[in-house]
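Class prep. Sample record?

___
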Amino acid sequence: MAEASVTLLDTQSAASTSWTGLLAQELDVVQQGLDDGPCLEAARRGVPIWIPNMRAEHRWPDFAEQALRRGVLSAFALPLLAGRQARGALDLYSTKVSGLDARARRTAGQYAQLGSDVLTRMSA
């Protein structure tokens, strides 16, 4: 994994609240500018999004182009839930094709669950 970020939703918009570096911040800004991309999709729909090869990504072509320009070749976005309501996403970016193996994706899911637990407690 190259970098990670957290995107949170409110009733009006999405905002990146933290990131590990400039690459993750830039890609979050790209998605917010497009109002589309894997992280926003995960955040809004409450489903994980795995992009093993950004070169073959067709669901978000504008985002994929920007990610490839920055050297990102795979991405994984996991929803952050407050109870059953999607409230954000944990976004992981890699400079390698299939940069997160199954074990790394499971571990990322555990971290996303911890974040979801925090959001659930905060909204109670």
